[in-house]
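Tutorial, part two.
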Amino acid sequence: GILIDEATTRLCTRELLCEELPAIRVKGKTNPITIFRPRQKGPPEYIGLEPTGSGRVSFPWYDRPLSISQQISMTEESLAVALKENVAQLCSVSGWDGLLKVQKLLGGEFSVDL
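Running the prediction step on this input gives:
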């Protein structure tokens, strides 16, 4: 199977779960290296408005839409803008009431008069 180190687990998207295994000794390193076994995450419980009544919108495949290298290269402000734009593109709720509710949750505004 495939084994990865800790640095690689931080670069993985959330579609993978990484099971920590006992550390191993490797040639050229003084300290043992922690290794992980990656595996694909199972299907989400739900998609869209959470059934808990919290009013949160959940897109499980979208937990981490940008790679670590993309996130590191962006300023905090540009990252926030990029994430908000991407989330807004994912929302497709039919009817103005649903659309207004989702936009309110995301911090945006739509006019019913359009």
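The chain has a mean pLDDT of 75. In part three we will examine how such features are distributed along the chain.
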